[in-house]
Amino acid sequence: MKTKRIPIPSPAPGHERFLTVHEFGQGEHKAYLQAGLHADEWPGMLALQHLMERLIALEADGQLTQRIVLVPYANPIGLNQRLFGKFPGRFDAVTGQNFNRGMAIDSDDLIDRVRSELSDDGEANDRIVRATLRQMVEEQSPAYEIEWLHRTLLGLSLDATVMLDLHCDYDAMPHVFYGDHQRDQGARLGDCLGFPIRLEEDVRGVVAFDGTHTQPWVCLSEATGKPFSRPCFAATLELRGQYDVSDDLARRDAEGILAFLESEGFVRDSGAEHQPPSGLTRAINVDQVKVIPATANGLVTYHKELGSRVETGDHLADIVVLDADGPKRLAVTAPTGGVFFSRTHSHLVYPGASLGMIASDERHIEPGQQLSFR
Ligand SMILES: [Zn+2]
After folding, report:
1. Ligand 1 mean position to 191 CA, how many Å?
2. Where are the alpha helices (DSSP H) in the chain?
3. What is the distance in A from the centroid of ligand 1 to the CA of 167?
4. Which residues form the Succinylglutamate desuccinylase/Aspartoacylase catalytic domain (predicted)?
5. Which option is the CATH number for 2-279: 3.40.980.10, 3.30.450.90, 3.40.630.10, 1.10.10.60?
6. For residue 289, how far is its CA from the centre of ligand 1 (angstroms)?
């Protein structure tokens, strides 16, 4: 393992920040993993610590067959956003920007740069595209600190063959997002992790960090019709809820990730096994996720457990109204059928607040707009 520190320009007099980066193995292909891009999401940070221990041992045994890069905390800016004992780590306090949005590469520019160089040799095409992507990141001229952070992370990750971005939800079943053009790899990843909910997205629309890695390849392929040997596979892993931080869960997730890396040819004979599925497997397009908004303020109590199959009209929750003249509850019913897989842990809700999500049978939002909510 080689460890390096990459500085991010100082945000204020007397301060310095840096990313810590661990690199393992050698080879043409790189697997890149990061945790905590949303700085208030900690289960992935612990999972990478367990994975690191396994990779150190495997490297010593000569079992790494390609490069693996770990960024154990991807957002030192957010880690320092402490406000009265809370960690508002999802948005940058300076710009208001979601740390996991707004870094997409200009695919039209990429197409213009490489179109005339591409041939019928997929491996050669891959190399041209990866070199150009690196060049495009290098040419970025950040101003805000969040832009420096994004440029630095993309400088490490954008030429990867496999990219896994570790997040978590508020209170949720483990689930995974990946492009709907990479269904087989995504399903294999879900199987390795034992994650039952798989959300497949069209990466040609608004993208997060994962889609930033896959969108250029999809756009290039559509625009040029040229072959590519091994475009980047990228996924966002949602490691349950924010409070699900335990060595037991983290060890399991690390083993699942390692099993996937082995299936992708980055390591051999790791002994990592597929993790047992933690619920009924359901793979849907992310457009079929139904977000359930609160229609009143009060305290929410749930009548359905995570992982429950619900039908339209089922009694899902109550909102306990605190400022009525007496005891009062408003029933919240399921607006659609499916698996209730995510809910809030911030129980004092208000109109518009999300009460949870159902992985449903029907489409609820326009394709490509799945990540336009912040
Ligand atoms: Zn997140």
Report:
1. 21
2. 43-60, 76-79, 107-114, 122-138, 145-157, 183-193, 209-224, 247-263
3. 4
4. 30-262
5. 3.40.630.10
6. 17
Measured in Å, residue 90 CA sits from the centre of ligand 1 at: 7
Read off the pLDDT of residues 249-302 as tens digits, 9 standing for 90 and up.
999 999 999 999 999 999 999 999 999 998 889 999 999 999 999 999 999 999
Residue owning tokens 């039209």: 108
Q: Could you tell me the distance, in angstroms and rounded to a whole number, from the CA of residue 114 to the centre of ligand 1?
A: 33
For residue range 302-348, list pLDDT tens digits in order. 999 999 999 999 999 999 999 999 999 999 999 999 999 999 999 99
> Separation of 244 CA from ligand 1 center, angstroms?
14
Q: What is the pLDDT of residues 25-73, one digit of tens each?
A: 999 999 999 999 999 999 999 999 999 999 999 999 999 999 999 999 9
Report the separation in Å between the CA atom of 181 and the middle of ligand 1, taken as the mean of its atom positions. Answer: 22
C-alpha 370 to ligand 1 mean position (Å): 14
Q: Distance, CA 248 to ligand 1 centroid (Å)?
A: 21
Considering only the C-alpha atoms of the chain, give the largest distance between any 2 of them, rounded to a whole number of Å.
Answer: 74
Distance from Cα 234 to the centre of ligand 1, integer Å: 15
**Domain locations in the chain?**
2-279, 287-360
Residue range 287-360 in CATH 2.40.50.100: yes
User: Which residues, 6+ apart, have CB-to-CB distance to 14 below 8 Å?
Assistant: none
Centre of ligand 1 from the C-alpha of residue 89, in Å: 9
What the block records as the tokens of 30 is 């790189």
**Tens digits of per-residue pLDDT, 165-219?**
999 999 999 999 999 999 999 999 999 999 999 999 999 989 999 999 999 999 9
Cα 190 to its chain centre, rounded Å, is 13
Angle formed by the axes of helices 247-263 and 43-60, nearest 10°:
50
Q: How far is the CA of 271 from the centre of ligand 1 (A)?
A: 29
Q: Do domains 2-279 and 287-360 have the same CATH topology?
A: no
Rounded to the nearest angstrom, the distance between the alpha carbon of 348 and the centre of ligand 1 is: 21
- pLDDT-derived band at 373 (thresholds 50, 70, 90) equals low
Residue with tokens 């349950």: 240
Give me the phi and psi of 159, to 5 degrees please.
-95, 15
pLDDT number for residue 362: 87
